[in-house]
Amino acid sequence: MTEKITLNVKGMHCASCENSIKKAVREIGAKASVDVKAGKVSAEFDPAKVGMKELKAAIQKAGYKVV
Fold first, then answer.
1. Cα distance between residue 56 and residue 66, in whole Å
2. What is the rounded CA–CA span in Å between residue 2 and residue 17?
3. pLDDT tens, 4-25?
């Protein structure tokens, strides 16, 4: 079963930012869609494999701030 969540993320400005976040989230086993203009990242993940802590850490490791 998958879970969906939308996070507010600061520091995104362009398509490169979008790609960086998608890659970081994909590397931990989740999927993400990114709305740079709105500052939102929607993630879909299996809570048995990926937790909120890992999701936030992956985005922050890519250089963005989850607020």
1. 7
2. 25
3. 999 999 999 999 999 999 999 9
3-66: CATH number: 3.30.70.100
State residue 59's pLDDT score: 98
d(CA 34, CA 49): 21
Annotated domain spans of the chain: 3-66
Does residue 10 contact residue 63 with C-beta atoms inside 8 Å? no
What tokens does 49 get?
């494999």
With 0.85 as the threshold, say if the pTM is over it.
yes
Using CB atoms within 10 A of its CB, is residue 16 exposed (0-12), middle (13-18) or buried (19+)? exposed
